[in-house]
Amino acid sequence: MTHSPDDFVLQAQSINAWFGQVHAVKDISLSVKPKTVTALIGPSGCGKSTFLRTLNRLHEEVPGSRVSGQVLLEGDNIYAPGRDPVQVRRKIGMVFQKPNPFPALSIFDNVAAGLRLAGISKRSLIQETVERCLRQAALWEEVKDKLKSPGTGLSGGQQQRLCIARTLAVSPPVILMDEPTSALDPISTAKIEELVLSLKKDVTVIIVTHNMQQAARISDSTAFFLLGDLVEFGETSGIFTNPKDTRTEQYITGRFG
Amino acid sequence: MSDSLSVLLSKRDGRRKIVNQLLLGALFLAALSAVAPLVNIFIFVIRKGAPALTWEFLTSLPQPVGEAGGGMGNAILGTIILVSLASAIGVPLGVAAGVYMAEYSYSKLSRWLRFGVDLLTSVPSIIVGLFAYAMVVLPMKRFSAHAGGFALAVIMIPTVARTTEELLKLVPTHLREAGLALGIPRWKVTLQVTLRTAWGGIMTGIMLALARAAGETAPLLITALNNKFWPKSLDQPISSVPVQIYTYAISPFEEWHQQAWAGAFLLVALVFALNLTTRLLMSRTPVSKD
After folding, report:
1. A170 to chain B: which residues are within 8 Å by CB?
2. Count of alpha carbons within 13 Å of B113, Cβ hemisphere only?
3. Cβ neighbour number for residue B26 with a 10 Å cutoff
4. Is B177 on the interface with A (CB under 8 A)?
5. d(Cα A192, Cα A218) in Å, to the nearest integer?
6. Is the dihedral of CA B1, B2, B4, B5 positive or negative?
7. pTM given for the model
């Protein structure tokens, strides 16, 4: 298979990341096709979350951290000198491990936050976007009668879908998810997984997960990380049925990690 | 062998229980004596002050010695003005310093700032008064509400800054990251997400600082001085409840002593009310540590 660069929405090239002296991510290159789901798997501490956080330049917010390499978003390097991380993060959204709606804001205001704080004040537009994103996140029916109540009053699974709606509101072409279901019960998890599959129509999703069944269920490609290295990257069906590296095989069959 | 051991142990057991009771009693007495002054102050101030606390006391000007009636109306208004002035300067500066110390806590400057703020907290208030005297009274060539407000602001700043810092640090990092990940600039995240989340708690810190400033006497003696009339202008000396209490208390006249007690009662009631409100607010703050 050969691809021209245009075939990829996001290309990480030789990404290295450090926390102080700790070299957490080692020379990782990985390309993602648009409107697909890519899963990053591997044992705890393998650098997959850190790698994910280099993709929207959030890693650099940690004091003492450092990044090298480049990430091309639709062909443009997000680490180019002078490139504003704020602009980058509007195009690459993120959903976190723990649902984190803003506690001081209502459900409506949580979804509207990204638009409002980016300086958009047109009411009708905000109203419209909030409803569309809540529908897209499969939350509208559950919250349409209590949009003014605080976002933190929802259940964990609802909060996580609220966070997804909040991310969708600034319409990023790429959404990063850092173990979005690890704090949720199985039913809420199933809803999020369904949601991820439906989001694929519009956006590209890169998801870190500890749950290998989850990776197998929802992803098109899978990357296996170990101790900061990218061991294997390919189509999910291939990784799970016919891994090329013995370490991948050992991990997915549960022999370590 | 094991029998004699258990007899020995049970003997010690009895002794241990007695010692335990004795020590517990001692601790209780120590705790009691720690709050005893508070109870005493309350009883004393209420008994002496409450009878003199009339509507006239709250609303009228002080009377010269020998004339009946009169009150602290101007001093009460003066305290309100002084505390408002102090908040207008002290709250923005204190909150801003707190934000800097919390959000940029890894910078070296921030560590020095924290040290400085801690030192400022322990500077005696009379020294703060002297500082305000040198900074405001001398250049303006007179005692004034400005100088008094400035002195009280300096007293408020460290408390407000430290509370702001502590409460911002309780706001979980993942909330800041959620904001950043939405493409919101850092300063907006700080204002609209972090500060907003912690605001309830910060308000209580501000109110405690207010309560403290309202009761300060020493710095006002050499900055705001005192005044027998209603406040007319901020660049004039101004009366305040604590200074008025002081003036009355050191006088030799019985009626003035009465007035001082009423003022003391008022001040204690104010501080008590502020603390109580603060506690109520605290218990409703949504900030959680996780």
Report:
1. 182-183
2. 21
3. 10
4. yes
5. 10
6. positive
7. 0.81
Tokens matching residue A247:
């370490």
Q: Residue A129 and residue A112: Cα distance in Å, rounded?
A: 8
Name the one residue in this structure whose structure tokens are 């723990």: A98
Among A133, A205, A129, residue whose Cα is nearest residue A165: A133
Q: Number of helices and strands (H, E) in chain B?
A: 13, 0
Query: Which residue type, as a one-letter code, is found at position A186?
Result: P
Chain-centre distance of CA A160, in angstroms?
A: 13
pLDDT grade, residue A6 (50/70/90)? low
- Predicted pLDDT of residue B2: 64
How is residue A150 annotated by DSSP?
Answer: B
| Other CB atoms within 10 A of residue B283 CB | 8
**ipTM value of the model?**
0.87
The span from the CA of A1 to the CA of A12, in Å, is: 19
**Beta carbons within 10 angstroms of residue B134's beta carbon:** 10
Positive or negative: CA dihedral A37, A38, A43, A47: negative
What phi, psi does B25 have (nearest 5°)?
Answer: -60, -40
In whole angstroms, what is the distance from residue A15 CA to residue A42 CA? Answer: 17
Instruction: Copy the structure tokens of residue B240.
Output: 């305040």
One-letter amino acid for residue B271 of the chain: V
Beta bridge partners of A103: none
For residue B185, give the chain A residue with the closest CA.
Answer: A86
From A93's Cα to the closest Cα of chain B, the distance in A is 6
% of residues, chain B, pLDDT over 90:
69
Whether residue A63 lies within 8 A of chain B, CB to CB, comes out as yes
* Residue of B183, B184, B196 lying closest to A104 (CB–CB): B196
Name the nearest CA neighbour of A127 among A112, A116, A137, A114.
Answer: A112
Amino acid code (one letter) for A244: K
CA dihedral B93, B94, B98, B101 (to 10 degrees): 60
The rounded distance, in Å, linking the Cα atoms of B104 and B84 is 29
- Which of A103, A100, A97, A76 has its CA nearest to residue A87? A76
B261 contacts B49 by C-beta, under 8 angstroms: yes
CA A19 to chain centroid = 21
